[in-house]
Amino acid sequence: MTGLGAGGSTSVTPEAGHESPTGASRRGPHRLAAIDVCERMWALRYHYNYRKTVEKPWTMGGTLIHTCYEYYYASLMPDEWRRKHCPWFYQRTLEERLKIQGRDWPDLVDMAKENLSEYMNVYRDEPVTPLYIEREFSARLGEIDPGGPWPELDDEEVTCRTDLVFENESGLWIMDYKSLGRSKCRRDGTLMRWKEDGEYALNWQVLVNLWLVRHELGPKVRGFIVQRTTRHKPYDFDRHVLTVPVKAYKETPRQLRYRVHHEREVVRKLEAGERPKASFHACYGRYGPCDYWDACKAPDDASFQAIIASDFDRPTPKLNVVK
Ligand code: SF4
């Protein structure tokens, strides 16, 4: 497993922090959902780009597992295809990348490596050809929602980034990795029974991914698969092909247009010197508090700004974000 990646062809500059080979999607489903959740949160994260300097351990565990699976599937590609689509594979070995990403979390690095070993044992003989890893797909609104309201938005691009697109004998499939902590598992640490009517039965990320990947790769994209695993021993795995609700799927391009319109409205407000709305009903969700929770709890504007300046990557906070 530790032999995955690199090949001695590229000079490497060591970097600090949490590195992704490919970066975040430019205008993806998470960003477009955030605009309707809390305008202030959207502005801080996506307009001003304030990112937490310290990642939460549970998100870091998932990030490291993603990295391991990326390298594993890249290792299965033919060399020429891999050089074209996964140049990061030749820049650092998996070992080097894990060391950089998880430099403050050696236990989580070990966990991710063990998880990958088990994963490779379980899926070693699966007849799949990996095609795209962490690739961004995109479409213009006018291409997927022709004749929609606000025609001036037709050229606006929406995007998504998929963990994996692979091919098997039945066609192309999108696969997304979901790693679960102990609180989401059975007492013995194994995965809870999959519920067909659970959170993925109607899921924004799934709908957007299917639209945009099909827009680029065509109808041979058969569907969306959720690959689950645990972030602890015993490493458990399962895989589910989602049934996508037809009506919601059809409505998705128009929903994308509404979200882009909302983004435009908020940007206009920010540029006019107004402050985006806060949504205090959205401060604490299923993954815990919002990243800006401590700042929004501050007693006044100065304390808010001080917290943003100390806890986030951008050192110079813009003003006008507090209402
Ligand atoms: S803590 Fe609440 S109000 Fe503040 S940015 Fe987050 S969701 Fe919005």
Task: Describe the 3D structure.
Helix content is 41%, strand content 16%. It is an alpha+beta fold and 323 residues long. It has one domain: Lambda Exonuclease, Chain A. The strands form 2 sheets. A 5-stranded mixed sheet has the order 1-2-3-4-5. Strands 6-7 form a two-stranded antiparallel sheet. α3 (57-75) packs antiparallel against α6 (94-101), α3 packs across α7 (106-123) and α9 packs across α10 (246-271). It is globular, with a radius of gyration of 21 Å. Bound molecules: iron/sulfur cluster. Iron/sulfur cluster binds next to α2 and α11.
Rg on CA atoms, Å: 21 Å
In percent, how helical is the residue content? 40-55%
- CATH class label: Alpha Beta
Q: In DSSP terms, counting alpha (H) and pi (I) runs of 4 or more, how many helices?
A: 12
- Quickly give the structural class: alpha+beta
Which terms summarize this structure?
single chain; 323 residues; Lambda Exonuclease, Chain A; five-stranded mixed sheet; 7 strands; disordered C terminus
Write the layout of secondary structure elements.
Blueprint: H1 29-37, H2 39-47, H3 57-75, H4 79-85, H5 88-91, H6 94-101, H7 106-123, E1 129-140, H8 141-144, E2 157-168, E3 171-180, H9 204-217, E4 221-230, E5 237-241, H10 246-271, E6 284-285, E7 288-289, H11 293-296, H12 301-311
Parallel strand pairs: 3-4
Antiparallel strand pairs: 1-2, 2-3, 4-5, 6-7
Bound molecules: iron/sulfur cluster.
Summarize the structure.
The protein is of the alpha+beta class. The protein has helices at residues 29-37, 39-47, 57-75, 79-85, 88-91, 94-101, 106-123, 141-144, 204-217, 246-271, 293-296, 301-311, and strands at residues 129-140, 157-168, 171-180, 221-230, 237-241, 284-285, 288-289. The protein has one domain (29-270): Lambda Exonuclease, Chain A, CATH 3.90.320.
